[in-house]
Amino acid sequence: MSRFLFILIMGVLFMGVFSTSAANVSANEIKNKDRQQTITIAHRGASGYAPENTMAAFEKSVDMKAEMFELDVQMSKDGKLVVIHDTTVDRTTNGSGQVGDFTYEELQQLDAGSWFSEEFAGEKIPTLGQVLDQFKGRSGILIELKSPSLYPGIEQKVADALVSRNMHKPENEKIIVQSFDHESMKKFHSILPSVPIGVLLGYSENGVSNEQLTEFSSYADYFNPNKAMITKDLVERIHEYDMKTHPYTVRDRESANYLLEAGVDGIITDFPDYVDPRKG
């Protein structure tokens, strides 16, 4: 073999290895970029690691460097905004009954942590005000109004809680309010139009129509469906209507990777480290 032919072959082989390496680096850069641009929203706090909707779960979310955490708001019998998901206290406390049948003081007597682990015995049901005061400036907060039709006036009370703390400014979208009750979101938008609105939607085999997206975009900034509805095409359609999407609820790494590849703007998850391992 001539020296020239040897050099030529080695050069071709080197370029092939370099191109493959560059392609791998490029793919990794794209994946890392996607993870960096997709925000992590800890579902009811980092609820895979601490009892949901408690201060412990919200602190864990901050510790894990999630950009936001999600919480659920209802009202006590005496009109306090309390943070709990179910309309009854049975599943996540040692009590029994409807949330709205308890006064705030009665709710405070319940243990909201032992059901998850004895490590969290004595955790309380927090108020929305307590959470806002504790985490203002430390984390974004996605506030879900849970079953607002049960609590007339809840939209105004939540708006008042935000305004009184100067947390209703539109600059950084650190506060988002969402609900499955779309009429409630229209009402909240009319009360406090500076706060971004999210529309939640359960899984539908029929998907979501352009007519629905048009309606949602007239008052909402986010369309947040069940993760099973998400495709790249749907994400593109949502973006065409000038909305973003934060689908729910991720509880495995495969789902997180699928949503990242689909190009979603945020992922609501019990496990922040499933979206981005650096948040572990």
Task: Explain the layout of strands and helices.
Blueprint: H1 3-37, E1 39-42, H2 55-63, E2 68-75, E3 81-83, H3 104-108, H4 128-135, E4 140-145, H5 154-164, E5 175-179, H6 182-191, E6 197-201, H7 210-217, E7 222-225, H8 232-240, H9 253-262, E8 266-269, H10 272-275
Parallel strand pairs: 1-2, 1-8, 2-4, 4-5, 5-6, 6-7
Antiparallel strand pairs: 2-3
Write a structural description:
It is a single chain. With 280 residues, this protein is an alpha/beta fold. The protein is 39% helix and 14% strand. The protein has ten helices and eight strands. It has helices at residues 3-37, 55-63, 104-108, 128-135, 154-164, 182-191, 210-217, 232-240, 253-262, 272-275, and strands spanning 39-42, 68-75, 81-83, 140-145, 175-179, 197-201, 222-225, 266-269. Strands 1, 2, 3, 4, 5, 6, 7 and 8 form an eight-stranded mixed beta sheet that branches. Helix 2 (55-63) links the parallel strand 1 (39-42) and strand 2. The protein is globular. The model is unreliable at 17-30 (pLDDT under 50).
